[in-house]
Structure formats: C-alpha cells, structure tokens
C-alpha cells in the first residue's frame, strides 16, 4: 500500500475514499506546476533548473504507479491547454510547443518516472530512507534518459546533450533527492 492508500482507507465511506485519492492526485498536479515556477536559467543550456523532478518523484512515492502517472499526465494536459504550468523561460515556447521543444523530453518523462517510483513504493521502497533514495534515483534516471535523448535531437547529439542537460544538474538534483527521500519514511513513521 502507498501513503495515499492508507489515508484513503481511513475514511468511512467509499465516496470519501475516492475523494481522498482525487484530492491527492490534484494536489500533486498543482504541486508539480508550482515547482516549475521555482526555476533558474543556466546561461549555456535551454534546460532550466527547477524543483519539478523531486515533486514528480514524490508524486510516485505518495500516490503509487497509477495515480502518480495520472497526476503527471494531468500536469502535461494543463500545459498543453495553455495554462502557465511550465517553467518560465524567455527562450522556450509556452503551451503545447514546449513539449516539442528542446526540454520536451524531460516533461514527457514525468508520467513514466512517477509510475516507476510508484511501482517501487507499492513494494515498500518508500518506507526506509535508503530504499526511498533508490526509488527516487531510478525515477530520476528515467527523467535524465528521456530528457537527454530528446535534447540531443536539438543540440547535435548525445555529448552536447549530456553537457547541457545532465552534468550541470547532477549535484543540485542529488541534494534535492537526498532531502526529499527523507519525507516519505518520516510520514510513514508519523502514521504509525
């Protein structure tokens, strides 16, 4: 069971059970959009530094594979609809064009990264710090792989894509990941 499963089963009726799951899904969608607004441009790359990857991975851990995936699909749908949910950028287009631009691979990987971390959460990886880190590293690897391969189409290959889309972000993402990985085990201890 995931964290949202435990919270939902503590409700008294089927309607509240469903409402709890829906509220959690919407919360993680909105939190992903809010994390996109905390972004920093790096001069030599089109890829902004944001808090989104950690929220995406937390969505998977908290919601499980299906709801984690759904929260990120809903986030992308909001962006496709033209809502200002993507990171602000002077050089990247907004709306649907963002998904087809150089950073589209990162964005399109979010549902899959959330699904993978959710899959691992269902198997108990979110209950201890070390396994929570492993689950989040696996999800982050999906984001890096998809984003880098897509970015490579725009910057002339894998080597420049790694230089502009991975290397500048590894240290910051590692720090965010190590901090975020502590959240789920702490919430499980609180619920016990």
Describe the sheet with the most strands.
Answer: 2 strands, antiparallel
Name the assembly state: single chain
Query: From N to C, what is the helix and strand string?
Result: HHEEHHHHHHHH
Taking all residues together, what is the mean pLDDT? 94
As for the CATH topology, it is: Arp2/3 complex 21 kDa subunit ARPC3
How many structural domains can be distinguished in the coordinates? 1
Question: Please, could you describe this protein's structure?
Answer:
- The relative contact order is 0.15.
- The chain is 71% helix and 2% strand.
- Strand 1 and strand 2 form a beta hairpin.
- The chain has helices at 3-9, 14-36, 52-63, 65-80, 96-99, 104-122, 129-155, 158-165, 170-180, 183-191; strands at 39-40, 49-50.
- It has one domain (3-191): Orthogonal Bundle (Arp2/3 complex 21 kDa subunit ARPC3), CATH 1.10.1760.
- A two-stranded antiparallel ribbon has the order 1-2.
- It is mostly helical.
- The chain is built from ten helices and two strands, in the order H-H-E-E-H-H-H-H-H-H-H-H.
- It is globular, with a radius of gyration of 17 Å.
- The protein starts with a helix and ends with a helix.
- Helix 7 (129-155) packs across helix 8 (158-165).
